[in-house]
Input
Amino acid sequence: MSFQKEFRIDGKITLRSEIGLATGSSEIEYPDGKKEKSFLILPFVRVEPRWYYSLDRRRRLNKITTNNSSNYISLLTSFASSRTSLVNTKDFEAAPFISIIPEFGIRRTSTSGHFFTEYSAGYGYKHNFFDKSFTYKASQNEFIFDFQYKIGYIF
Output
């Protein structure tokens, strides 16, 4: 679940900000080989500049362009902190991270202009901020694939 706001910078360029809750898991392996998992719910913050490159074409073809109903290219930047987790079932340590992902997306708005669907995908970089007092199985720097599907309502 998240809340977002998109600010128009130029005719086709916007800055989208989002705050919400993400789910995840953390796993610990004990010396005897036993593994335990923890379920997490943590807050996240995203900032994403977007370029809606097909707005003019959709207008020329008399298609819906309300609320940026168009294809776009963006740079999705996310931050999540495990230190502020709302739910941590086993109280394990999970690393906070920042990610930067170039994305391609498709956004379509309903004829009423209030409901929208959005698909996006990208491949980018993730940096985990590890605490030196813990041992982690993940790498500090990772390349990640991101796919999102969103349904929303615009007030």
Remarks:
- The chain has a mean pLDDT of 86.
- The two ends are 16 Å apart (CA to CA).
- The chain is about 5% helix and 60% strand.
- The beta strands are 2-8, 13-29, 35-51, 71-80, 87-88, 97-109, 115-128, 141-153.
